[in-house]
Write the C-alpha cells for this entry.
Amino acid sequence: MPEAIEERFSDNIPDAAIAQINEAYEFGWSQPENYTIKAPKGLSREVVELISKSKEEPAWMLEFRMKALDIYRSKPIPKWGADLSGLDLENIYYYIKPTDMLNSRTWDDVPDDIKRTFDKLGIPESERGMLAGVGAQYESEMVYHNLKEEWEKLGVIFLSIEDGMREHPELFREHFGTVIPPEDNKFAAVNSAVWSGGSFVYVPKGVQVEVPLQTYFRINAENSGQFERTLIIIDEGAYAHYIEGCTAPSYSSDSFHSGVIEIVVKKGARMRYSTIQNWSHNVYNLVTQRAAVYEGAVMEWVDGNLGSKVTMKYPATYLLEPGARGEILSIAMATTGQHQDAGGKVVHFAPNTSSSIVSKSISKNNGRSSYRGLVKIYDGAKNAKSNVECDALLLNDDSRTDTYPYIEIEEKTASVGHEATVSKINDEQVFYLMSRGLSEEAATGLIVRGFIEPIAKELPLEYAVELNRLIELEMEGSVG
Amino acid sequence: MNLEIKDLWVSIDNEMILKGVNLHVPAGQFHAIMGPNGNGKSTLVKAIAGAPEYTIERGEVLYNGVNILELEPDERARQGLYLAFQYPVEIPGVTVANFLRLAIQARTGQEVQFMDFYKKLTRALEILDWDESWVNRYLNQGFSGGEKKRNEILQMLMLEPSCALMDETDSGLDIDALKVVAKGVNAMRSANFSALMITHYNRLLEFIVPDMVHIMVDGRIVKSGGKELAVELEANGYEPVKAMAAAQPAAAF
Ligand SMILES: Nc1ncnc2c1ncn2[C@@H]1O[C@H](COP(=O)(O)OP(=O)(O)OP(=O)(O)O)[C@@H](O)[C@H]1O
Ligand SMILES: [Mg+2]
C-alpha cells in the first residue's frame, strides 16, 4: 500500500473537547460466576486486554489493538458528515462475549416491531432467532457442509476472523490492517481496538468460486456484531462473490456499530462484495470498507443501506496498478428520523484505471439521504476514467437529499463524468399506472422499484427479492 | 360496454375546457371524435379515466349506469375502462412483462398463472406482429412514438377492457403499424366492448370503421354523424364546423 493515503471527507478539528471521551474507563471488568465475559461500559486498556485474552490472540494483535486505542483517543469525532451529536461513546458496551450475548437474549426480549417485521417478511421461525440475535443455529447444515467440502478442495478459506487469525497466522498477519490502518479514521481506530467477529476469506490463485460466499453459511462463527472485522484476499486471477448480512432487521440493543472490511484483489482477480444492511432504527452505523486493487483486477461493491438511525458508509476502492477497475453501486433509503450518508470513494493511482459509481437514494417522510463521493486521480494515472451518477428520488415534500461530490484530478489525460438527478414521484407516472388498475400505493411502489432496478438486478435473485420486499415495507403508508 | 357522458363540464387551472359534453357510446359500438387541436378531446378522455389535474365542475359519466366520476382511477380501470394515452409516460426500471402481469393481477384481483399469462402474451404479440424481446424492455423507456402507441394496444389486448378510450393511437404510426394496430383493436370487437377513438385522420377510420363520428370544437360536440362525416371533414377542413360552433354559443355554466 502506498503510504500517505490521507483521510478523506475529513476536516481538521483540533483535539480539544474530546478529552471527555477518555474519561470513565476506570471501572475495570468483571467476570461473573458463569464465566461469561462482559466488559463494563466504555473503553479502556483493560477492556481491550480482556477482548484480546478471550480470543487467545498473539502478542502482536494485542499491541495492534492498544496502538489503535491511542489513535482512537487522539482523533475527534468527524463533523463533516452526518450529525453524530446523539452518539454517546461512553455509554456503550465495547465487548460482550458473543456466546453470552446470544444466550442472554430470548425471543421475548426482541421488540414487537421487529417481530412484526419478521411476520411481514415471512421469515421462517428457525431463522428469526438467529436474525434477532437470539441464540440459534443455522438449519441447513447439510447445504453448508457440501459447499464447504467443495471449497476446501479448491483451497478456499472461509472462516470467522478469529479462526482465520489462529489457523492461518502468516497469511492473516501479512494483510490485516494494511488496507485500512487504524490511523485511517476514528471509527476504523475504535474497530481496530475492539474488533470481534467477522469473516476471513482467502481464494487461491486462479480459483473461481461460483457459489457466493454468504455469511450465514459460516456457522460456528461468532455473531457478527458491533465491531465486526472482515478480511478478504482474492489471489491472482481468482474470483469470488461475498454476500454479507441478512436482509431482516438486525436487531440490536446496541446503538453503535462500526465495522471494518478490508479487501485485497490481486492481479487479474475479480471480487464482488454485496451487502444489504438493515439495522434497527436506533443504530449509528459507521462502517469503513475498502479494497486495494492490483493490476488488471476488478472490484465491485454492491451496497444497500436501509434501517439504522444514521449511516455513514462509503465503500472505497484504491486502484493501485495499471488497468485496475472499480465499480460501486450504492442504494440507500431514508425514512422518518433517518439519515443515510452514503456513496463511494475511488482513488486512481495508476494509468488506465477506470471506475464508476452509481448511487441511488430514496427519501421518504422527513428522511434524509446524502450522496457523498470522492473521485481522486493522482498525477501519472494516465488515461484514467471515472463516471459518477447519482440519482435521488423524493417521496414527500419534506424529504431531503443532498449531494457532496468531491472530485480531485491531478492528471491531465484523465476523464471524469458526473451526473446527478433529483426527482419526485411523478403524478403522470402514477396516473398512468393507476389507469391500468394499480392502486396508488402499488403504483408508487412500482416506480420506486423501477428506480432501484439497476442495482437490484446486480444482486442474486433471492436478495433482489428481499431488497424489494424491504423497500415495500418501508413504503407502507407513504401515500394517501 | 355502455358509456354515457351527460353535460360534462371540466376545468383546469380555473379555465373551463369542457363546456357541456353529451355523448353516448352504447355497448358493442365504436365511436370516433375528431376536432381541431387544443379543443378538449384529450381532456375528455383523461377526465373520464380520472386524471387528477382536472376538476369536474358539473355532469356525469355513467359507465354501465354507475357514475364513475366518484371512483379512483384504478377503480375505474377495474370497472373495465382503459385509456390508450396520446403521450404514454416512461416508467424506467419496470419491464413491460412484469408490469403487464401486475396490471392484470390488479385489474382482476387474482394471481396470474404464469403459463396462462405467457400464452395470452404470445397471442397478443402475434396479433401486433411484435417480437417477444419487447416485453423485456422497460415500460415505454426509449420507445419511439410509434412503439409507444403499439405498446398501448398491447396493454389493451392483455387487460381486456370493456371500454377503450384511444387518444390519437394512430398518430405517429407508419402505414404497416397502423394496419397492425387496427387488427389489434378489431380483435377486441364484441357485443360487450365499446370504444371511443380520438383521431385527426380518416385513414384510421378506414381500418377501424366507426359507428358514429363526433366533432368537438371548443369543449363541445358540435356535430355528429356516420363515418361519412370524417370524409367530409377531410375534404373541407374545420372552418365550416368552427363557424357552426361560433353560431351556436355554449350554454352558460
Ligand atoms: N395542464 C394544463 N394546464 C393548462 N391548460 C391545459 C392543461 N392541459 C390542457 N390544457 C389546455 O386545455 C385545452 C384542451 O387541451 P386538450 O389536450 O384536451 O386538446 P386536444 O383537443 O386533445 O388537442 P390535440 O388535438 O392537439 O391533442 C388546450 O387549450 C390546452 O392548452
Ligand atoms: Mg389531444
Q: What stands out?
A: The radius of gyration of chain B is 18 Å. The longest helix of chain B spans residues 145-159.
